[in-house]
Amino acid sequence: MSRAILEVSGLSMRFGGLLAVNGVALSVKEKQVVSMIGPNGAGKTTVFNCLTGFYQPTSGSIRLNGEAIEGLPGHKIARKGVVRTFQNVRLFKDMTAVENLLVAQHRHLNTSYLAGLFKTPAFRKSEREAMEFAAHWLEQVNLTEFANRPAGTLAYGQQRRLEIARCMMTRPSILMLDEPAAGLNPRETEDLKALIGVLRDQHNVTVLLIEHDMKLVMSISDYIYVINQGTPLADGTPEQIRENPDVIKAYLGEA
Amino acid sequence: MMTKNLKTAFFSALLVIAVAYPVIGLKLTTVGIGLEVHGASPAVLWTIAGAAIVMFFWQLFRDRLGAAMASAPRLPKVPASASNFLTLPSTQRWIILGLVLVALAWPFFGSRGAVDIATLILIYVMLGLGLNIVVGLAGLLDLGYVGFYAVGAYSYALLSHYYGLSFWMCLPIAGMIAALFGYLLGFPVLRLRGDYLAIVTLGFGEIIRILLRNMTDITGGPNGISIANEYKPTLFGLSFERRVPEHVQTFHEYFGFAYNSQYKVIFLYLLALTLVLLTLFLVNRLLRMPIGRAWEALREDETACRALGLNPTAIKLSAFTIGASLAGFAGSFFAARQGLVTPESFTFIESAIILAIVVLGGMGSQLGIILAAIVMILLPELMREFSEYRMLMFGALMVLMMIWRPQGLLPMQRPHLELKP
């Protein structure tokens, strides 16, 4: 089996008296789709926030390709290839779809002031490549015809797809999706499932997923972690999780 | 419903009296060395009472009046198609080009006073374009922008006064010093957001002014410092002043004209125009560069920017620094035009006017800012008789704008990007 790309152990996050995350451990292997499930308020998003540097974890270690990344600011972690989406869509709403994709490539562009002011050939080339890359991904997520529409005017499902395309602009190694299927209709969920498959198989992206749609989770995940009240409850393949009595109890309550 | 209206109406009328009576109804007259308060003429008092009554009935019957107004012919609105056409980036570029042509011809047809006012407008266009980067594009509410303007003006004045540097030497240095101030202030301040940032920058602007006023030994305090004629702007070494030291050649002597102060006014105007054109070019390029897109993205969603690997602090700092350097250039030109800088040229009201230009023009739109600068500077000049009511008119203008065009005079649509170049 392939090597682990992200290893988390003993991750805890305390807000004052509340221990929101307590001793969570994850091991994500390259090119896997790993899901994190659990009841509402279980601390899944908090784990995401810790992993991506939006929170500074109280304790625990996070290793990306063997390198400790806990405590780094968010943009530095993103530059190491860990990119996320948010539970509520966070596009740049007044900017057009294609501009959203160009912004995300910022780090890979020629950002020299002089080159930009005088439109040097190197600058033009860098901008052209960015445009081609953006066009390529707009096509991948089926939004080419909306390229010049302000992102805020797109339909909800389209915004979700655009957000994933925007993440791909940063050429990530791990893509973390926070409830990507929330608010999607069944057909759009199917498209999403296909898209995640494409990301993993054709673009070598490891996907970490928070999701409530069990049908989706069970059908695409290679591995599942269950979190309940901040503590890890179970982990295993979809089959193991489906039959785990603790998980059933946590979801359905005591009989 | 009626009782609620009655209450609102009563308090509105009371408010009219409470505001209008002390402001218009009482007159201060100097008697010897003291002041005496006199009541205004009965006509004025009756007008105030009348206004209060009108306000009372207006508030009382507002709902019904509103319904009646709806059926009456409405204020002509800008048709959607025209508005769409005017906000297109390509249209705006042509309008700007037309304005530039008019501006080039202006000094050769306008009177001396007209050219002088146009120069002042150009200074505010520059300031507006600079603040637009900070407020309009990067979304950082900066109420102390005039501080950087002062830094630029004083840099030139002090450098020429103590080190004998010429305008052309000082202009880039002033821009750099202002940029440095922007950078240094930006570091601690840009952690703050929104209102907090506004308050701190407001404080910064005032600190600069008060510092300049109190460092009497260096800056001359409230008297300011004047700039000697030989250090004023020159055209390839030719001075436009009447009296200069021996070693300086003057424009009128070189070409053998009689001295005419009109030359100097026109020269300063063209200099300001050049600076504005350079600024326009700079802002235009910045908008289409990765950094310009990053500013706008940051304004819309800082968290998302961070998640995509953009460093918010670095991006904000760049906006703050570039904005400050533009204010520095404008400031040193202002000092050159005035020939004298005093701390009182850099009060908060200047910041407010520049901010009003940005808001009035439509955040982020360059043409809008040019138009707004013309309106904001020209209106008070045209209505000198009403100068007491200047602030009142600014207020009314702002309120009207918020009702009529909350997006600003001429906002700009997003440029259309072709996918396949």
TrEMBL record, chain A:
Alphabetical UniProt keywords: Amino-acid transport, ATP-binding, Nucleotide-binding, Transport
Keyword hit for Transmembrane helix: no
GO MF term set: ATP binding
Domain ABC transporter per the UniProt entry, residue ranges: 6-254
Record keyword Transport present: yes
PROSITE patterns in the record: ABC_TRANSPORTER_1, ABC_TRANSPORTER_2
Family: Belongs to the ABC transporter superfamily.
Protein name per Swiss-Prot or TrEMBL: L-leucine ABC transporter ATP-binding protein /L-isoleucine ABC transporter ATP-binding protein /L-valine ABC transporter ATP-binding protein
TrEMBL record, chain B:
Parts of the chain that traverse the membrane: 44-61, 94-111, 117-135, 140-159, 165-184, 196-212, 265-283, 317-336, 348-379, 391-407
Pfam family, one: BPD_transp_2
Keyword hit for Membrane: yes
Assigned keywords, A-Z: Cell membrane, Membrane, Transmembrane, Transmembrane helix
CDD domains, per the entry: TM_PBP1_LivM_like (cd06581)
Location(s), subcellular: Cell inner membrane
Boundaries of every High-affinity branched-chain amino acid transport system permease LivHM N-terminal domain copy: 4-106
Origin: domain of life: Bacteria
Record's bilayer topology term: Multi-pass membrane protein
Database matches in PANTHER family: HIGH-AFFINITY BRANCHED-CHAIN AMINO ACID TRANSPORT SYSTEM PERMEASE, HIGH-AFFINITY BRANCHED-CHAIN AMINO ACID TRANSPORT SYSTEM PERMEASE PROTEIN LIVM
Name this polypeptide is given: Branched-chain amino acid transport system permease protein
Originating species: Pseudomonas cuatrocienegasensis
